[in-house]
Hints:
Blueprint: E1 20-21, E2 24-25, E3 36-37, E4 41-42, E5 53-57, H1 58-64, H2 67-70, E6 77-85, E7 88-92, E8 95-99, E9 103-107, E10 113-117, E11 122-129, E12 141-144, H3 148-167, H4 172-189, H5 204-219, H6 226-233, H7 237-248, H8 252-270, H9 275-281, H10 287-298, H11 302-310
Antiparallel strand pairs: 1-4, 2-3, 5-11, 6-9, 6-11, 7-8, 7-10, 9-12
Helix pairs in contact: 3-4, 5-7, 8-10, 8-11
Amino acid sequence: xxxxxxxxxxIFAIAKSPDRRQFWHKPDIxxxxxxxxxxxxxxxxxxxxxxxxxxxxxxxxxAQGRWRLDGLRAQGSHGYFWITRGQAQIxxxxxxxxxxxxxxxxxxxGHVHGVALGKNIQGYAVWMxxxxxxxxxxxxxxxxxxxxFEQGQITSYFEAIAQEDLSRGPGTDHATESWMxxxxxxxxxxxSRNDWQNGALDTGGTRLVxxxxxxxxxxxxxxxxxADLAATLGVTxxxxxxxxxxxxxxxASGLLHDRIILQAKLNLxxxxxxxxxxxxxxxxxxxxxxxxxxxxxxxxxxxxxRTDARAGKIPNPPAKPRRxxxx
Length: 327
């Protein structure tokens, strides 16, 4: 893949594996459209910070653990989500929306976001590293494909990228970037139908939440407290928590704990570091406190989670919808 510096934000990378699964793509777009299988993909990707373009089916991501996508965090790659069946809930910064069949969602790199996948979800997800020479929007996009032609057009871009990833033939990098360019051109040409309210919710509350999420993403692993974050934002912890609850359904302390625990889960699953080192890397000096916090949030000790997650024994229900302030 074309290079670029590694970001501190994790992105997915396809885990090359001989065990390939077939996920059937049956878009609900009318009786005249051919129903065909998605290309067979390797087992779902992990969070390795490898530059490039990575693709997976939404069913495979859901099977690996919905918690990986649902937790709010930023990434060093642009995210594209194409839903051909089922529903999802998307949160980008202070704004949460539901998305259904035949909806294309784009989230720019660096934007704190979470994607809650519903039952029987079908479709694709692609992550394109921010350093690749492919132009991409600087704002969130949600566009519903309006016709069978548009649905087939978008699906063809994702299928071509998946096929290139599987074949790994000469020129794959250039071909994949070309397909991503076409996908971004499609998004640009249909901006008039962008249903995401970029800037429309520019209130004091949304601005505070967005600034808080940016500080949280930057500092969550430095041992900061909500009071520290509130002070840097010029508000009281009580006011900050109330606004966070309004827009994201949780107080500031809950969002801070969620971000720490999400990173802890990823590190336990994907790294071989000791629990003491993982705790220290998250700004927690006492392993005993880390274990108590982790068990309080997950019902398992860090060691139990690592063992169960690697054995595929973590329960994987669809995430509960976020209860947020109407927008």
